Amino acid sequence: MRRTVAHRGNGVRSCAYPWPIPTGSPNIYQRWDTTGKTSIGIILTRAVNTYITNSGSEIDNSAALSADWQATYKTGVAISYVWDYAELPGQRNRPFGSYRLDHIQTLSATITYQALRWLAIKPFANYRTRSSSYLGGNYDAWVLGVSLSLQWPSM
Q1: How would residue 135 be classed by pLDDT, with cut points 50, 70 and 90?
Q2: SS3 sequence, the chain?
């Protein structure tokens, strides 16, 4: 197994994870090519988000694992698992204004099939679960779909 990328600090790198790597946040990104067709990766990140209007901040501690397999030159498979521990100070509803904690887990799988030079077909499945100290904030959800991408050749 040889190491291909190690990243600490700022920056964005394209990968199979279901969210972009935050810029300006302390993060560790490591990716290995295990064979000519497979690779695995890990991201550890801590982000402080202040975009919640009139509510305060959100502190996220996340870990993600990813595996990619390029079965043929036309077919690829990507899976990932993300664990997120979110702290939201002062945003709980029972008792009002107390500390809210969310535990979020996401499992994603995508198959990419390049049927023609101009047509890509991507069936995908995402499962997400959240347990929260916010009253009524727990959920489990599935998203299943197919993405079709058309790219007209340049002349």
Answers
A1: confident
A2: CEEEEEEECCCCCCCCCCCCCCCCCCEEEEEEECCCCEEEEEEEEEEEEEEECCCEEEEEEEEEEEEEECCCCCEEEEEEEEEEEEEECCCCECCECCCEEEEEEEEEEEEEEEEECCEEEEEEEEEEEEEECCCCCCEEEEEEEEEEEECCCCC
